[in-house]
Amino acid sequence: MKAVIIGATGVVGKELVKLLLQSKKYEQVNIIVRNKLSIVHPRLVQHRITMNDIHELPGHIFEQAQVFCALGTTIKKAKTKEKFREVDFDYVLEFAKLAKSYGLESFTLVSAMGANKKSMFFYSRVKGEIEEALLALQLPKLYVVRPSLILGERQEKRFGEQLAAAWSKRFSFLFNGIFKKYAPVQAKHIAESMYKLAVLANQPYLLIQSDQIEHWAKRKIT
């Protein structure tokens, strides 16, 4: 199989790259990046390109490929709502359209808990809108993963997330029962669930909520 990853330099994307290279199921793992990763592997192909030039990518990498999208930013990093929407909606949709035009096998997206096109919160609204737009594309297979707070090693330090992560570890006993879905999720588990979904799932569409991520991460591949 072939894989294509966009957002490979992010906290989930890096874990996904490592996981897919460890798997013997992929003859080639293509990543689309602005700056190349330091990883060197015989099955890794790095395409250094900006989103403005995405249509210059060789179409064959998408043919019958399992496509993974871990692309995303924050409003703080993007500076404006317009820039945030450009990354989390426009870029993701354009990437999916391109992959579909060349005959992808499946598309797996990292979204966010609370994604809803009618949300009063801009972040959640954009996440809900991209999910709906991808559904409207009628991709062969679409798998959406909605994690809560993501734990993992990031390039940039986010004080709010560090504080929330420390708090959640100290009071982990609170995330039981109906509150389990709010528990923070390790980036590695999100990557594992995306990989297992792409390999194991047969349904044309699946929406995986945060408290279901670990279940998929633990699934066995024979």
Describe what this molecule looks like in 3D.
By secondary structure, this protein is α/β, with parallel strands linked by helices. It has a single domain, classed as NAD(P)-binding Rossmann-like Domain (Rossmann fold, 3-Layer(aba) Sandwich). 37% of the residues lie in helices and 18% in strands. The chain contains 7 helices and 9 strands. The chain has helices spanning 11-22, 75-78, 81-101, 122-136, 159-170, 187-200, 213-217, and strands at 2-6, 28-33, 44-48, 65-69, 106-110, 142-146, 150-151, 185-186, 205-209. The chain has a 7-stranded parallel beta sheet, with helices on both faces. Helix 1 (11-22) packs across helix 6 (187-200) and helix 3 (81-101) packs parallel to helix 4 (122-136). The protein is globular. The two termini are 15 Å apart. The model has no long low-confidence stretch (mean pLDDT 90).
